[in-house]
């Protein structure tokens, strides 16, 4: 009997035939026989690079428009925007065909707000308003235990909450252990990688050796203080520190002219200075040579006097504002940025322990500076308290003596002047960035409306719109609406 021999090829043919007989019809139809699959190129080709969208034309119909220059509300204004800039503003602005209409006719429209003092690297986004809360995995890394990459992601969330609250421009005055992550975040926003507010930033603050700066290593041979600041002593070393920070892309140099303080029950405070006047002058001179601005943390006393004498761009806090410091501020025409809620957090505890508090001192000094005519830009110090909640500070500015117009100017024209961006932000005018917010009511009649921002636009892009009217209407629909 002859045996049939099977080659490898014949065996494969038999197996394939058997599989075809047992395979469901639906599966037999899949594979290269599909037209779409058959049409694929031999090798996958990546898609073309994304292209920036063409500028769009948008018109905002503002029922009331706040003008910080006049301090008044203008009725029934149209803001015409092309791309990221405002091209016209007025009561009868012609709109090209196809213009997208954003109807804020029942709202008060204001320039995007500017916070000249906050810290995006501070604050756990989990526990702030809008956060997920502490889950079963705990709060995650906090403070200086956070890896830099984790802290950068948290800083992004914090910055976006500032933007969502209406602060389209912010100044970060010290990264508090985040090193130059503030610069990286600013660049990522500017390049369009992530969404966030416009930013000017400092890096690590500058401190001199003192009891409050306990050194420990952080990714560098240079000593870093317990607040994540850079320690430098003497005129030459502080100049070197400024040059280094300029190299890494900061816009501001933040110096700590006071750190240690003692609260006394008689309502006073003892403040220890850090840098000498000579050191402070060297910092300011070198920073200005590099085109950088200087902000100084100073509660009062010699440290505050040194800052003002050296010509920093803005002293901050000044909660022990004596007559000499006040006189120098006025003579040099320097502003003073007063933070509030970072001090109020410890008010009850400090009053219980010392019979005195930084919050109480700040209120007295604020009223003293306001009465004397010191320029007071809006600066919140957000970070120790949740980002986005600084919108509530407007009400306290009024509670402490400002008019609503003064409070709004502090976060618009005055803040824009301080940071050197008056040509681009601070008002709603032709040629400026379309950074625009809205509230439902009239903030001149009720300043707490600023705690209820309902619309935010940055550079012509709508970040959020909680107004009742549809955020997107065509010009034809708008004309019909006007006739009605």
Fold blueprint:
Layout: H1 8-22, H2 25-28, H3 35-38, E1 57-67, E2 72-82, E3 85-90, E4 100-111, E5 113-118, H4 148-164, E6 167-172, H5 181-190, E7 198-201, E8 206-207, E9 230-231, H6 235-247, E10 252-256, E11 258-263, E12 269-273, H7 277-289, E13 293-300, H8 301-310, E14 314-320, H9 323-332, H10 341-344, H11 347-354, H12 358-372, H13 393-399, H14 404-410, H15 413-419, E15 436-439, E16 453-458, E17 461-465, H16 475-483
Parallel strand pairs: 1-4, 5-6, 6-7, 8-9, 10-13, 13-14
Antiparallel strand pairs: 1-2, 2-3, 4-15, 11-12, 15-16, 16-17
Helix pairs in contact: 6-7, 7-8, 8-9, 13-14
Question: How would you summarize this macromolecular structure in one to three sentences?
Answer:
The protein contains 16 helices and 17 strands.
Task: Give a structural overview.
By secondary structure, the chain is an alpha/beta fold. It has 2 domains: 54-112 and 426-484, Urease, subunit C, domain 1 (Roll), CATH 2.30.40; 113-425, Metal-dependent hydrolases (TIM Barrel, Alpha-Beta Barrel). The chain is 32% helix and 22% strand. It contains 16 helices and 17 strands. The strands form 5 sheets. Strands 3-2-1-4-15-16-17 form a 7-stranded mixed sheet, with no helix packed on it. Strands 5-6-7 form a 3-stranded parallel sheet, with helices on both faces. Helix 6 runs parallel beside helix 7, helix 7 (277-289) runs parallel beside helix 8 and helix 8 packs parallel to helix 9. The longest helix is centred in the N-terminal third of the chain and has 17 residues, at 148-164. The chain is globular, with a radius of gyration of 29 Å. Mean pLDDT is 89; it is low at 214-226 and 469-484.
